[in-house]
Amino acid sequence: MSACTDRCDEEYEDCCAGCRRKRSRxxxxxxxxxxxxxxxxxxxxxxxxxxxxxxxxxxxxxxxxVRDHPELVVGTIVIIAGVVLIATTGPGGAIVLxxx
Length: 100
Fold this sequence. Notes:
Layout: H1 2-20, H2 25-68, E1 77-80, E2 83-89, E3 95-99
Antiparallel strand pairs: 1-2, 2-3
Helix pairs in contact: 1-2
C-alpha cells in the first residue's frame, strides 16, 4: 500500500504546484480543493486495493489451515487475522472455512 500512497502523494504535490501558479486567491483555493478531492479519491482506491489483498491473504490462510489440520471438525470456530471463520462442508463433502 505504501507505493500506492506514495503515488497519491506525488500526484497531490504536482497538482498543488500547478495551483501555486494561479494568480487569483479564489482560483488557487478552488484548485487546492480539486487537488484534495483527487487526493482523497486516490487514497480511497489504495485502501480498497489493500482490502482486496487482505481478503485474498485470509482466504489463502484459511485454505492452508484446512490442509494443515485434517482433524478439523464441522462447526469448529477458527480466527485468522481477526476474522471469525467456521468449518463447514463444501462441495464434495470437503471441509471449508467460511466467514461467520
